[in-house]
Design a protein that fits this description.
The chain has three domains: 196 residues, Multidrug efflux transporter AcrB transmembrane fold; 74 residues, Alpha-Beta Plaits; 221 residues, no CATH class. The protein starts with 16 loop residues before the first helix and ends in a 22-residue tail after the last helix. It is 44% helix and 15% strand. Strands 4-7-6-12-11 form a five-stranded mixed beta barrel, surrounded by four helices. The chain has 607 residues and is α+β, with helices and mostly antiparallel strands. About 14% of the residues have low confidence.
Length: 607
């Protein structure tokens, strides 16, 4: 018979508890260091605590087009609403989808809530406008250049249009090759007064009329100097002069100026607008009346052209849109740069201004220095004009900064009271063991706080009032795990075992109970997070996070710390204030093995 092996640890024994404690302490230091290094030492506060407005929008598709409520269209809508919110001059606003058909807009304090509601709830305005003039986005006025000459300002403006995307297309899916655009460098800095005139016949040095093709007439033709043959200067157009002045004064680097540039402009009016070129620099535009709008776009998408190995954006137009687009491109192909460009204007901002190299109709292709992200973004923006989606305002919640501060203070007081009651209970009932529980609660609180502070800039997590409630509930869940473990240890001591083997034998049984309990809590938090909309998700997220941290703390701090303290005289001897006194627990006498005596029957009947 083989002799039993010596030195075998009991089930659940932990060989190197000190190393495990060092590991979790390193994790705590790393999280705290990352928090201070990033500069985010406090969690982001939600609207209900910091003050502001929360708007919940629900997407609604047109009859028969229910499939339009999908992830791509919702993300496109989020991007457009975000542009509008930023256009209000709002900082730290949040626009995000929740669930399949909801968009949540969180606007912090200091914003006109009524204006914000109007901005985020209306349909996007998408227009195709001909470009009359382009200049760098500063306030430096551009002087008209003499006919047939090239000025330094004209050359500077010509450079500003470098990198513009080429527009090319063909009917019935055919993609013709794009030709080189013709252009007069001096036309780039032309004043808007010339751009809005409708001369008798187009000249190479004069931009065309924005509203239609020039018509032949019997009137005298202008000379190269821009004056009639008889020398009489043409009458100035007051509207064109005013627009020219606004264009010269426009500074596209100022966000408020960009928003105000095209505000209140009707589609049939000329306007000024700002946009970024391919190099990311701001440019300002003078734009003619809208020739095509977003409703004329049937479909648009960014895709990779495998033959040329480049990303492009393709557009398909409706029947009416094809006629309109053919008409405007026929005019643009006869013009010089930049009058051969059309601007794609979304909510008053130029998102792209491609050149037109040939007459286009039912479909078109925009090519240039696109990457996958920029091509798909432009395709989504163009598609939004044709999206069969509207948004209904489900709820609007406005909280003042004072009320938010009061709610935060009330939440913190409630948490402090709950924590204090838990600590009092642990001290009264568990005495010395309460030290382990309090230290474990401190570690759990430190980890939770650090993660909340880091998750703010990382994923946009904001601590709202329901999230504070989730953190308060988590105190009880964490304390429950300690209680389960302590009671298992006490049960082993009641069976007559000493502390060290009791600690190790109690752990496997307590571990199973803790894992099952935490799994149920985490599952409930996960289901609540995915099926709810709005602030309840904050409660679910915090509850799930603290439940996971409870497992980490119990396994990597509470258990190894208990193993180390079980080796000290105060706990191992069962001191009355240790909480592990065998007499107070009603422990049985130590277990002893008794010898069995065998009785041999003498009576054959008994055998």
């Amino acid at each position: 018979m083989a002799a039993p092996k010596r030195g075998r640890r009991p089930a659940g024994a932990q060989g190197k508890p000190g190393r495990v404690l060092v590991l979790i302490l390193i994790a705590m230091v790393a999280l705290a260091g990352g928090m201070f290094w990033s500069g985010h030492t406090t969690p982001r506060l939600g609207i209900d605590l910091a003050g502001g407005t929360t708007i919940t929008l629900q997407a609604e598709a047109e009859p028969g087009k229910e499939s339009a409520v999908n992830e791509t269209n919702m993300n496109t809508a989020v991007g457009i609403i975000e542009r509008r919110v930023n256009g209000l001059g709002v900082s730290e606003a949040e626009v995000q989808t929740q669930g399949r058909e909801n968009i949540i807009v969180n606007i912090p304090k200091g914003t006109n809530s009524e204006q914000a509601r109007k901005q985020v709830g209306t349909t996007a305005q998408l227009y195709f406008r001909p470009v009359l003039a382009v200049a760098p986005g500063s306030t430096t006025p551009q002087q008209p250049a003499p006919s047939g000459s090239e000025s330094p300002k004209a050359e500077e403006a010509e450079k500003a249009t470098d990198g513009k995307k080429d527009e090319k297309a063909g009917d019935a899916g055919e993609t013709p090759k794009a030709g080189e655009p013709s252009g007069d460098p001096s036309a780039q800095g032309r004043a808007v007064t010339d751009g809005l005139k409708a001369p008798a016949a187009p000249a190479a040095t004069t931009p065309p009329a924005a509203t239609g093709d020039p018509k032949e007439s019997g009137e005298p033709k202008p000379s190269d100097s821009g004056k009639p043959a008889d020398g009489t200067p043409p009458p100035a157009d007051p509207a064109a002069t005013a627009l020219d002045a606004k264009f010269a004064a426009l500074n596209c680097e100022d966000q408020k100026a960009r928003v105000a540039a095209g505000k209140g402009v009707k589609p049939e009016d000329s306007t000024i607008a700002c946009g970024k070129n391919s190099a990311g620099a701001w440019e300002k535009y003078i734009l003619g009346p809208s020739e095509v709008d977003g409703k004329d776009v049937d479909d648009a998408k960014g895709q990779l052209d495998p033959q040329r190995g480049m990303w492009i954006v393709t557009m398909d137009f409706t029947k009416d849109g094809s006629k309109k687009f053919q008409k405007i491109t026929a005019k643009l192909t006869q013009q010089q740069s930049p009058q051969n460009q059309f601007a794609i204007v979304l909510d008053g901002e130029v998102v792209s201004a491609p050149q037109v190299n040939q007459v286009l109709s039912s479909n078109a292709e925009i090519s240039g220095d696109f990457n996958q992200e920029s091509a798909q973004d432009l395709g989504n923006i163009l598609s939004y004009g044709a999206l069969p989606l509207t948004f209904n305002e489900q709820s609007v919640t406005t909280v003042s900064a004072a009320l938010g501060g009061d709610q935060l203070q009330a939440g913190l007081i409630a948490g402090a009271i709950g924590l204090a009651l838990v600590i009092v209970y642990l001290v009264v009932y568990y005495r010395g063991l309460a030290l382990i529980a309090i230290l474990s609660l401190f570690v759990s609180a430190a980890l939770t706080y650090s993660l909340m502070a880091l998750l703010g800039p990382a994923i946009g997590f904001a601590l709202n009032l329901p999230a504070v409630c989730g953190a308060i509930v988590a105190i009880g869940i964490t304390a429950d795990s300690f209680i389960v473990y302590f009671e298992r240890i006490r049960d082993e001591i009641r069976e007559g075992r000493t502390l060290r083997p009791a600690v190790e034998r109690a752990w496997p049984r307590a571990r199973r109970t803790i894992l099952v309990s935490d799994f149920v809590s985490f599952l409930a938090a996960a289901v609540l997070f995915f099926v709810t909309v709005g602030k309840v998700q904050g409660f679910a997220f915090t509850l799930g996070l603290t439940t996971l941290l409870d497992v980490v703390v119990v396994f990597f701090f509470t258990k190894p710390l208990m193993t180390l303290l079980a080796r000290t005289k105060f706990f191992a001897s069962g001191h009355p204030w240790s909480g592990l006194d065998p007499q107070r627990l009603g422990a049985k006498p130590p277990l002893r093995r008794s010898r069995r005596t065998s009785v041999v029957p003498t009576d054959p009947k008994e055998a």
